[in-house]
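Why do we bother with holo predictions? Because pocket geometry can differ from the apo form. Keep that in mind while you read this record for flavin mononucleotide.
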Amino acid sequence: MPPKRIAVVTSSTRSPRLNPTITQYVYDVLTSDPTLPTNKPSPASPSAIDTNPRHITFTIVDLAKQSLPLYDEAVIPASLPADNPTPHYTKRHSRAWSSVVRGYDAFIFVTPQYNWSIPASLKNALDYLYHEWKGKPAGIVSYGSRGGGKAADHLRGVLTGLRMRVVRTAPGLAVRHTGLPVGALSEEEEKVELDARDVAGWKEAGVEGMMRNLGMELVCELDKE
Ligand SMILES: Cc1cc2nc3c(=O)[nH]c(=O)nc-3n(C[C@H](O)[C@H](O)[C@H](O)COP(=O)(O)O)c2cc1C
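The structure, written out:
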């Protein structure tokens, strides 16, 4: 069986932003989980060959790099041929995004809360496609001053509308101390460091365990296929 590919999606697109830092944290927790059948070499035996037939590859997909304009497709995505919608989009950027999403078997959306919902950039990227999402497992990790639970709830509804199989566990990261730099900003400053107090709070609240549960729930969904 070929490896299953899970995209860990960075959902906000402004600059600077916290999302790449939070996404990297989620990625690191998932890929360091010894119970998940990832194809990352184990630190204990780096030369070991992974023979697990259902191994998993995690890849970070950043919506900011897709450069999608506000939704401008002439066709309704759900009306396109389900088996091969990509060539039927009228815009080049839609075809490119369709190809990217078709390359993954499941998704973890890492999203901030913007005014009790998800950022427009994420809704926009979701609206562009339909069959590329349909039927695939999805997980949600949110963040905000209280964990971004309202964004997670909204996103669950949107993904269910896209007929994705949204897993139950949805960790929420309360971001209290980690922040964007204040003052003049350069490109290099975009990478924001996590504040150790936030990370300690997440660990104490069991958030890393929830992320591993989420990862395992996605693996179980992929195993059903
Ligand atoms: C437009 C906007 C709306 C926001 N609304 C909320 C909110 O409803 N609840 C919350 O906890 N934080 C809210 N925040 C704070 C964000 O969670 C915080 O700024 C976070 O850094 C946003 O992620 P980003 O930096 O990746 O864009 C909001 C931020 C922005 C920019």
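The two ends are 11 Å apart (CA to CA).
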